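Problem 12. The chain below contains 415 residues. Write out its predicted structure in C-alpha cell notation.
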Amino acid sequence: MSRCFYFKTEYCVDFIGMQETLEMIFNCDSDSIEYPVEFYELEPSEGEREAACFYIKGESAKGVQVINKEGYIIIKINSLCNYKDYDLARTILILERDFLKTQILDENNAIIIPEEYFTNERIQKLIEEDAKAVEEEDNYQYHGNHWNCILDNPENDIIPLLSESIEKGSLYGHTTCDYTLEKKLHGPVAILEYDKGDRESAIVIRNVIAADNNKKSNSLVSGFPVIKGGNRITLKISKIQEWENGLEGWITAELVDGRWLTLFDTGFAINKDKYEIGKNYDFIIGALAYSAHEPESKGFTFEGQKAIDFKAKLGEEPEYDENGNVKPIEFSTEQLCAFLQRGHAPDEAEFITTVDEVRAVKAFGKDFWKFDVIYRSEEDDGIKIPTFLIQSNENQSIQNAKQLQGILWLTGYLA
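Solution.
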C-alpha cells in the first residue's frame, strides 16, 4: 500500500536527468529541509533505465520514493510512514512544483496544493488511515515472527542459517506442480530438510525450492521451522487456503468430534495436489510458542448482588453467613483449557492449558521448554499438541507450572 502524487512533465525523462533534477532542487533549496536528506538509487530492472527511482531517506526509516516513469514524476509515500515522511513528501512536492512549473495530481487526477493539503491534522489522519489499511491488507503470508521462536537474533542469524540448511540439508520430498514466482509456472519443486546434525531433533528447518524457468535457475521460495516431534491425529479437510506463491498454505480441518483447527502445512508444496475437501488424512501436528506464562488469576468470585443473580439463574436461593451477608461464590479456573483461533493469522492461537509436565529439552542446538497444549472438549481429555518455547531468562519460572497461557503457531504435515 502507498500514496502517490503525480507531476506530468517531459523533463527528466531519463535516469541521469532525474538524479540531476533532485540534486539541483535540494542543493538550491537546502534551507527548506529541516533535517538531513540522503539519496539512494534504486536500480531499475534491466532494460528499464527510463524508470528512474530514488529512495530519499530523512529521519524516518521508511522514507519517500521519487519515480520518473511514462511522462510523470511520481512522489510515492510508503505505507506506515510517520509524520517526518509526510513532511518530507510535502517539501519535495513544493520544490518539484516550483522547479517544473506544473500542477500536482493525486491518484484521482485531482489537483492538490501541498501547502493546503498536508496540514498537520490531515497528516495525522492519513497516518491513521495507513495503519488501518495495512492491518486489513496484511495476508500474513510470511514467516518473520516464526523465526523468532527458534532464533535469538533472527536479523543476523537467518541468512547464514538458510545458506547452511540448503548446503547440508537432505531431500524431504519432491514433485511437479503449479506455482507462482514473478509469474505462473509449472515445474519441479523440492523440499529440503535440515536437522543441524541431530537426527533426533524435534525441530528442523524446511526450505522450499522451485525451478525458475525465466532465469534458468533454482529459487528459494521459502524457509521455515518445523515441529517433527508432533502427535499424529486424523483430520477431515474442510478448507485449503493456498498462499500467493502456490507452494505454501493453511489447512482448516475437523477433528473426529466436529471441532476444527487451522494449521500451517509444512509439507504443502509436495502434497497439495493430493488433498480433497471432505476427506480424512493423518497429520503430525505440533506448535511453537511465541510466549507462555502462568495465569495471573487462578479464579474469580461473585459477591453480593452478583452472587444472588447467579444463584437465581440456577433456580437456587442465596446462602447467608452468620451476619446475614450473602456468601460469595468462588470459581476456580485452575483446570481451564481453551484454544482460540480467532486472530488475523489463521494458524495462530491463544491458549490456556493445564500441564502435567514442563520439560527442558534440546532441539536444533537450542534449549527449549516442551509441554502439551490440550485442545479439550467436554466429552474427552482432548488432543495434545506438543509445544516448544525457546528458553530465556524471562520464562525460567514456568518449569514448575501446572497451568500455562500464551500464544502459539500451529503447524502440521501429512503423516
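Discussion. The radius of gyration is 28 Å. Students who got a different answer should revisit the alignment rule from Section 12.3.
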